[in-house]
Amino acid sequence: MHKKNEDEITVSSDRPLDIKDWNEDHVRQWLLEIKVDKEGADILYNEKINGASLLLLEMSHLTELHLSMNAKILIINKIDLLKQKNQQQNDIVTHSYNLKPYPFGRFNAAHRYRENSILDVTETGPKDYIQPCHEFKEFINTTEENKMKKYTYEVIRFAAACMNSRTNGTIHFGVLDTPHGQIVGISMQNTDTFDVQQLHAIEKHFKRDQKQDDKQVQIAKRCIKPPRFVEVLKADMTSTGKFVIEVDIEPSSIVCDCSYFNTYNLVIEQDSMQKSTAGESKKDYGKSFLIRNSSTCKNLITSDSLKEYEKYIKDMPRLSQLRKDAEDKHLFLVKSSVQGSKLCEMITGGTPSLDRSHFEWYIVVANKSHPVQLENLRFLLHMDLVAVLDFDPESAESGLIKLFEERKTNVHSPAHYKITGAVEDIANKLKLTKNTSWVFCNGGINEENPSDADNWLIEKGSSVRDVVSFLCRKDVLPHKKFLTIFLILSQVSNANDPLLATFSMFLQELNGGNQILCIIDNETSYTYWKELIKGWCREDILTRCIYELSFAEVNGTVLSLWSENRKSSRFLPCGGGSNVVLSKKTEDDLDMLRILCVNQCDGGNEDKQHHEEKFYKGGKVSWWNFYFSEQPGSMPFIKRDKFDYIINTIIPDICSRKRVCEFFSIFHLPGCGGTTLAMHVLWTLKDKFRCAVLKDTTDDYSSIAERVVQLLTYETKEKPKRLPVLLMIDDFQDISDVKKLQLQIEEEWLEQNIFSTSPQVIIVNCMRAESSEQTDDAVFIGNNLSKKEQELFEEKLKEFKKTNTNTKTFYGFMILKNNFLPKYIQGVVKNTLKGFNSKDKHAQLFAVLVLLHVYCKNAVLSVSTCEEFLGLQTKADSKSRKVEDGFENFSTLLIRCTVISKVSFQGVTVIHSSIAQQCLKELSASHRVTKADITNLLLTKDLLYEYTLGKQKLLQDVHNMLVRRQYSVEIEDSLFAPLVQDIMKEKPGMEETVLCNAAKCYRKDAIIFQLLARYYYIKKQDFTMAMDWAKKAKDLSRESSYVCDTVSQVLVRKLKHAFREDKDDPIQPVNLEKYLTLAESAAEACKETQQTANKEAMTRLQRQNDYSIYNTAGHLGELQIAATVIEILQKIPPYKSHSELEGPDTKQLSGPEEESGNESYFHVMEKHVNFLNQLKKTMKQHFDFLDNFFVNLVPLFAGKDKQKESIKHKVFKYFQQYTDLFCKTNWSELYKKSMHPTEKILQTRECLEKNKGDSYTGLVEYLYEEDSASALEEIIQQYDYILKFTEENKGLIDLTNFIYANVVLANINPESQYIMPYQELCKLLLDIIDRPRSFSEILPLYYITVLLLWQEANRDLPTYVSQMKTLYLNELKPLYNGKRAAVHFYLGREKGYGSLISHRDINSCLESGQDISTQWDDEKIWKQVRDSKKLCRVSGEIRNNFIWVADVKFMVDPMFRSQLRKESGTRVTFFIGFSMNGPVALDIL
């Protein structure tokens, strides 16, 4: 409990706040509280010392009164503190501000008072009978026992006076007389008692006794309203816990007529009154007749005379008529308002409905709300609110944000809006344009204290300025396409109110008030607001305010502007014809998905013609197109041939499978209707599946998975069976990205601890491709319509003609109908570009759009960017002008689209890819505008990137155009991006200018600098410039191994170029020195690349869902250098005389015998002796590393290893060079030779190395090669020889490799005579398993041990598996990210070698073209495997995401956890695959 400071002075709630108003009783009470003895207190009391004189007391006065020293010290000390307290109180009063009273006759008005503010009314008598008179009562010096008596006395007295005077009135309790009208409030526990006691008092005082008729009582009850308790807030808008009690009196003419009202037995108790009445002990007024006389209540029944009373009674009919006339006049004064239509005009921006509003987004700024207002603010729930700036610190408990509990909001503090990085990244983090950002602008978040009005600007103004500035940026929200709505929910009457400062901020940022709307629900609050804004901003806001409508009317008006489709509930299917309501909040949560509901488009008022024109012109299809095609009188939507195949074959087949998430692909050429087909499938199946479209192709797969599973399980968690989700994705870069998403969905499904034996999510993958064969899981849409499709298009064209539809610009439709006929496309483009002038801004911008469309998928320019570039925003009619108008004739080839990116926005793009391609040709041929010209324009026009929406996406798109290369079967490795290569062909040499401009545009971009380095060393052979750019790139991105590798590539290319250009034969010593120095530098750079790749790989392991693979460039680079050095050495005299370099010892490289004439070469090589001595060892290490990497690890997802495919021919070439130099011995000749065993063993090892038989990875690789049996037989013979002559000291590696050779050969050619019998091989294995061994020997030994001893059920098997898994993680840790351990063998049904089945055995029973090693995730293939009976099916029990196998007594991993489709404890059967990371379970049933 807080301990009060000894010097702290408190003022009792029973004493007036102003100390000068204290009487002698108050002073005596205070003296006793500060520990002055009773005697001293009585002395001052008897001297009638009040508050005013107390503050003037000095020590001399106290001495004269003969007070004790103790009393004098206490009083003088405390008086100083009392003076400070009084001054603080006076300061508060000085800084107080006026407030209008609570609206008369209302009980649910959202009105609150602020402590110490002044009511903007005075105590008065009758005015015009309608305008209420007021009376203030402190009610703070009354004891608890007399509080109710005081209350009822004052109410009855005031009420009777008002009723007899026929004037409305309000009596306020908790409001001071001095300072006049100051609000202090009253603390109370129970409010119900006041109403009950008030009714009792009416019954008691408005009739003389029980016998009298109670007519007067009934009238009084109707005139005297129940007490109203108005909350009192602190200056910072938080609650004080106090209230002002108010009672309204309304003596309406229809209720009172000509009645008059006597009161009886009104008693004033001494203790219940203020000091002014303390002299009267008790007085019975008996009958009284009260009226309002000025600011007091006057009793006309006195002991002196009744004349005044009788005269007043006689005049009552006239008074009653005056009241009635006043009421009638008041009704006539109510003006007919036009503000309803004004609100419609302002909130839509002049459009007929909010569905088609000029404004894309809305910002709301609101102050403290009252709970009674919330129901009438529900229109906000339907608005596209980008942000709400909430100034209520208690909003979370009882304010506006409570209304939004049924919507998704992201709560932020103003600090979140401070620009600390890229603007679009901040907007993305805030989720602007995805969910409403709720900004607490005056505390109420993160335990931040609110500020009062006087201190807010200093304490919080700056951070809120950041919010306003951020939201008004042109690269955050579309310029002039958002409206800021100020909701004045509480009266603003303080000139320092935060809302005024915030209004000023918006006014400045928006350059005026045309994008601001103020909504206030009463004219009084409006008057305050208008005058304060005028004082703050010198701005007249009359035209921007709605103030004559109540919030109920505002709510109804705004809601009426939405179509029924927007307001009505949306439904998701549940199966069996049942549906559930999709709540708004859930749909907000699913912000990455566009949900297709069962009742999609129902009740909409969209324009059919608008949607058809947009689609057939070339825009993306919308749900409305399908909806309109199903309406009576409309032709059905055109079905593509592949539609029925997907609906009737692919999807039913997928539904019969067992994997949780499956996918099928619609491959298509651009503009051929692939996306339309996919959406048509979803529309057709929206009753049978929960359908959704992924909005953006983000790589945040885990977040997408969360939303997909949430959609799947919404309102179905308790159901044993649920409808699957049909998820459409569009334009993923690679099929592996689809598989990453598939894996994440399955992982998320498992996290929910739900199990299923059928697909729960089916992904419809819509992807661009040049060609593709139709398979069980894929279709291809080309640019040739079938005969049936052509007939449907002809029929649709006839329908257009019947309805007089203008099809002139239906280019998308006509291109398809004409099967992409070049003549038609050329004609359209030539005719449209007839007046093209490259000096015109709209022509330049059109050319940029064309280039973007051709070279970057989904690239657009935002509408805001186009408007800025064309200068449309600065024109007077900018609001009425569309961006299409700015493009003039070219607008027919352009179309708008919505872009969902970090920030959502409206974009402009070319209608069709074939149109864009033809435009580029036409611009070049007819108008001499080259691709280089357009690209340079794009890179040098700063206006395209300055503070406009979509800036970051545009920068990324342009970046991709310049950098992203195409990889295909035909072109293994394109050296540059297609745009750069096309510029080289069209205008050679201009590409350098383009790339230099790119470097200026992307001033700190390592990838662009890397591109320049590559350009200079590949195309220009300018290695100095290349190294300069490479080093700049490396400085910017030191943690990237790919950027780091650029330095080594510059050196390697420089070495190869210099050697290639050297025509001297033999090479001169001076050049040899240069080449070897360069080679050493390049090798060092490659080593740095390897180190960076290792660090990079370890970092990736820490990141969740990072599937990036290890970069092998550094290893390949060193092999390349070594191979080049070998070629160089073959051209110098010491070796030139030999047909080939001799080995195997590297001494032959570094130390040739000094011969006459070779001294200079010898001296050069001496300098590089260490490098040359390590050459063979270095090459061998890298060959082993790459073998280890590619044999033990395969891609995480089924498919070919593209990384391996891309470099294998290079590695093979380097290995050939290596073996030609160091491994020249031929086994067939060596086998017959007679020589010393030691020498023969050395040459035999040379043969092993040549055949890659000296490592287990080389031996395993034979499983994947054709005609490898003879090589393996040679290897076994070679090991037989080596082991025979090393009987006593047989090496563990030799024995292990020998076992591997036998196992692999037994699989490839089981009939071979060289294979050791299985049992003997097992015995050999058991003999060596416990031998001491080095770390590098353990993993391959344990793998082959598990492989051979599985069927023996060896008791040590669990130990071997456990240690093997640990070794795998340790040894391959930097390498396995984005990979999985390769399965080389499967457990077969037979015994001995027959129990080990390889992929080639399984492939033999599959259809042509199928391969289990790249299609292991295909359920159909596993069905064929089951049918072949080749593999042994093992049973086990699911336990904690593993499978317990009782036969071998350990857990087996599933290949992926998602393959465990059943609950823990369930029995399953499966196949066993053997990988370096332990046995894995496959085809789990």
Automatic annotation (TrEMBL):
Coiled coil: none annotated. InterPro entries: P-loop_NTPase (IPR027417), SAM (IPR001660), SAM/pointed_sf (IPR013761). Residues 22-68 form the SAM domain. Residues 1137-1157 are annotated as: Disordered. GO terms for cellular component: cytoplasm. It comes from the Eukaryota. PANTHER family: DED DOMAIN-CONTAINING PROTEIN (PTHR16155), STERILE ALPHA MOTIF DOMAIN-CONTAINING PROTEIN 9-LIKE (PTHR16155:SF20). This is Sterile alpha motif domain-containing protein 9-like. It comes from Carassius auratus (Goldfish). The gene is LOC113067565.
